[in-house]
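retry 2 of 3: previous attempt timed out while embedding adenosine monophosphate. Reduced batch size to 1 and resubmitted. Inputs unchanged:
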Amino acid sequence: MRRLSAATAFRPADPAGRGGLASQQQKILRVREFDHFVVIDFEATCERDARIYPQEIIEFPAVLVDATTGALLSSFRTYVKPRHHPRLTAFCTELTGIQQDQVDGGVDLATALAMHDAWLSVAGAAKNRLAVVTWGDWDCKTMLESECNFKNLEKPRYFDQWVNLRIPFEAAFGAGRRNLQEAVREAGLQWDGRLHCGLDDARNTARLLAELMRRGVSISITGSLPQPPPPLPEPEPELELQFQPQCAYQR
Ligand code: AMP
Ligand code: MG
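retry 2 succeeded.
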């Protein structure tokens, strides 16, 4: 996994708020890599104790966060209609709260990606100054990547790297197995909404992100997709071989 420079990530100079000239100067000199974070939490088709193949996204939520202040600025959600297993299992509805009529009225994934991108533009988020934040690596590394691959869809480049919030969380609170709800509570926040509702999960992840920022925890890219191999070099123009036999057979 590739880690980008932490030096350019959000890192308050003076988390304890002690001030002082040196820390003020540090604040002025620091160059931030991101203006916004966009917190994503996909929900997908699922079955109890079994794998659904291919798994498809059914809820596409996002929360935009100011990378300087931690303020939650805007939210987005669309339901997505699964093509391969269009009927949700009872287990899936029970887990996520997503109803059959919500996915029946949903858009396809290509449209969801385009709507999300347009929402970012309207919200004023510059795509090259944006980092995707998720709880875990599954959303960008596994789910979106595999579905875009098997549906042959292009996705915006900002989904190709992300901040797995577990990593800065563990830097602050120590390693351990905990789900998002447990992490939110461990950070001293109240869980708000329904666990496994994508938008509620994304909102709570965004609140946890803001809390980590407030505590001065460094937030930087933790994972990325493998870079595609560089294009093959152009083939050399074929040399015309002018072959002259050097030693003819002599009687
Ligand atoms: P989450 O973000 O934790 O709500 O989960 C994302 C997706 O992972 C869900 O929409 C399901 O597709 C799958 N998932 C989560 N928990 C389970 C579970 N206990 N059993 C089966 N699939 C699950
Ligand atoms: Mg979720």
